[in-house]
């Protein structure tokens, strides 16, 4: 009985810590609308000039300031790169589940629907070319719509934690730091 009570207390304490880096839903930064002044973190180009899905990251040290990403794949570089901040409070990606044909051809700004990046289903290795002229990880909240996208455009579906380094670092983008030598796939790719 004491073991059960101890386990329940531990579980309650861990649940109270909240989500990503201790954030609960109540204090987690909320996604922002892409403004005309929003610039990509790596490329420093205007976000509204790029088509396709986007991403934003909030740091605990700057909870009111979104770091914007011109492509979704760039967030995986940010999260994995040892030189980037690790005090991540929230990561959001554009949900492409309900995107219209027009949404794929123009920048998603005020009409973008944002979802937690860690819960999204990602289509990688498809024929879709993202806003920076390279393949992108396409996020979906709805698995059935991700599967329909794969049936039409090829690729495969993976979770946030299963996006491989070989995909993240295969498409160099101006301003993105090169793959760190300590990355898990680095030794295998030489």
TrEMBL record:
The keyword Signal applies. The keyword Signal applies. It comes from the Bacteria. InterPro entries: N2O_reductase_NosL. Residues 1-18 form the signal peptide. Pfam families: NosL. Keywords: Signal. This is NosL. It comes from Kingella oralis ATCC 51147.
């Amino acid at each position: 009985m004491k073991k059960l009570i101890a386990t329940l207390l531990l579980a309650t304490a861990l649940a109270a810590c909240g989500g990503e880096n201790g954030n609960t839903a109540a204090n987690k930064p909320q996604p922002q609308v892409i403004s005309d002044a929003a610039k990509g973190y790596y490329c420093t180009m205007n976000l509204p000039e790029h088509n396709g899905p986007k991403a934003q990251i909030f740091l605990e040290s700057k909870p009111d300031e979104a770091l914007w990403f011109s492509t979704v794949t760039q967030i995986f570089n940010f999260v994995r790169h040892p030189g980037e901040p690790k005090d991540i409070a929230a990561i959001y990606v554009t949900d492409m589940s309900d995107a219209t044909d027009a949404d794929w051809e123009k920048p998603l700004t005020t009409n973008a629907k944002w979802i937690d990046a860690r819960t999204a289903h990602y289509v990688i290795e498809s024929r879709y070319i993202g806003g920076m002229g390279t393949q992108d990880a396409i996020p979906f909240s709805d698995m059935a719509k991700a599967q329909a996208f794969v049936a039409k455009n090829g690729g495969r579906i993976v979770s946030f934690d299963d996006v491989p380094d070989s995909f993240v670092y295969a498409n160099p983008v101006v301003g993105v730091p090169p793959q760190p030598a300590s990355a898990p796939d680095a030794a295998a790719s030489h």
